[in-house]
Amino acid sequence: MVSAIRHKASELQIDLENEEIILLGHSSESAGKLLRGTVTLHLTEPMKIKSVTLLFIGKMKVSWSEGIGHHQHYHKQEKDIIEHRWQFVPIMDQAHKKAYTLGAGQHKWDFELLLPGDLPQSLQAEGGQVIYRLKAVVERTAFLQNIVKKQAVQIVRCMLPSEFELIQTLEIHNTWAEKMMYDILIPSKVYARGQLIPITFHITPIATKLRVRSLTGTLKEYCTYTANECSKTDTRIIKLQRVEDPFPANPPASTSSPISWTKVLQLDIPPMSSQLAFCDADNEMIRIRHKLKFIICLVNADGHLSELRCSVPVLIISSISQQTELNTLPAYDQTWRTVLCMESPMTTPHTEYPSAMTTASSTLASTPATEAIAATAATEPIAMATPITASGAMAMPGETVAASPSGDPLWWHGANLSRVPSYRTAAQQESAPFSTSLPSYDQLSVSPRHAAMFEQLSITPSNRQTPPPAS
């Protein structure tokens, strides 16, 4: 009864800016993420306390048992991954000092911590766990019960859309001597939880009267746990799809049009809310991997059965980032596409191309940006001459360059600012200097592999070249 009254008099809570911390990219290239939130203490009456602290801790645990009865062995190991402590109210080191008194009302303490990008993601498997949590403690005086609040933190790793594995199609192509030619295709080696895995079978029979009895696709999971130099591996089938007699009543083969059979199987991966599958993990205590297995069962002309079996490794992750491409920097050879189309007042305006068959390479300055354009544009002649204003925007017939009352051209040179120029037009303009008001590092969601690119990019007014006037 007394404990219930105390809880009504005070309430402690932890509010996170993001309930789920998403790390972008592989652990070797991720830039990390900021953990930010607020600890709030609501008091209905003044309270004496000794300290207010917050602890963030990440732990990895594995445990399993082997054997039966007297021969049973229990293996267990626990490891701290990360630990950080905040102290909002100083701890009293000496007993004779008075405690701190907090008045009635709401008390808030903000906290933040930059999490490293190589942290393993949260995991709740049968034989192992990776957990992160926050623990806020209000230490009371004397023998009064402390106020404690715990908050779980979910860390998820998200693959970048530009990763090579996401765009790499996997194909198994071979010929079974005197029986068939086959192709098995999957669109990628990486899949997110909740996605479908389409498996395409292309079969061209060589032997006469050959028939496909069944096609089978299986997603299998391998979980390996390690504790004190002992290991255990559990395997299970996550999904199995089997199609009997996939190509019924096939017409006889002819010399002009050989027989070719095609069938697509769909394997659905359980979503994140399900414990029927786990994401791939690779660390010193827990390793989880997945394989796709295929079986083609054939019925030969004499009636006996033959089976073709093969398997490929695949990567199962939490999710694939959809908005990352909008926030990351382009490749070095594509940076010219992001340069603003602005013109220095000292640049000589281009009025028109000299002839209808003049290529873009004859009017571009010799810069890395324009050379990239000229390499592709030089092979395509311009079909018709188009007037170009001093700002580089194409001027429509009948348009004139605007001027100020004093007769001087306006700073935008009369260009239609609502019209976006093409890359070819923008390449003829002087490169604008990059903005000096860059965002803070914690707002950047880029990987360390772009650091070398930042050092190489050095665009200053002294090294810019002015495009030559049209001849």
Task: Report what the structure shows.
- It is a single chain.
- The model is unreliable at 1-6, 323-328, 336-401, 445-450 and 458-466 (pLDDT under 50).
- This protein is mainly beta.
- The protein folds into 3 domains: 2-66 and 74-159, Immunoglobulin-like, CATH 2.60.40.640; 164-320, Immunoglobulin-like (Sandwich), CATH 2.60.40.640; 329-471, no CATH class.
- The protein is elongated and about 95 Å long.
- Strands 2, 4, 5, 6, 8, 9, 10 and 21 form an 8-stranded mixed beta sheet that branches. Strands 13, 15, 16, 18, 19 and 20 form a 6-stranded mixed beta sheet that branches.
- The longest helix is centred in the C-terminal third of the chain and has 10 residues, at 368-377.
- It has helices at residues 2-9, 164-167, 324-327, 368-377, 423-426, 451-456, and strands spanning 10-16, 20-24, 33-43, 47-66, 73-89, 100-102, 105-115, 123-124, 128-140, 147-159, 170-176, 180-186, 190-192, 196-205, 211-227, 230-244, 261-268, 281-282, 286-299, 305-317, 319-320.
- It contains 6 helices and 21 strands.
- This is Arrestin/PY protein 1.
List the topology elements.
Blueprint: H1 2-9, E1 10-16, E2 20-24, E3 33-43, E4 47-66, E5 73-89, E6 100-102, E7 105-115, E8 123-124, E9 128-140, E10 147-159, H2 164-167, E11 170-176, E12 180-186, E13 190-192, E14 196-205, E15 211-227, E16 230-244, E17 261-268, E18 281-282, E19 286-299, E20 305-317, E21 319-320, H3 324-327, H4 368-377, H5 423-426, H6 451-456
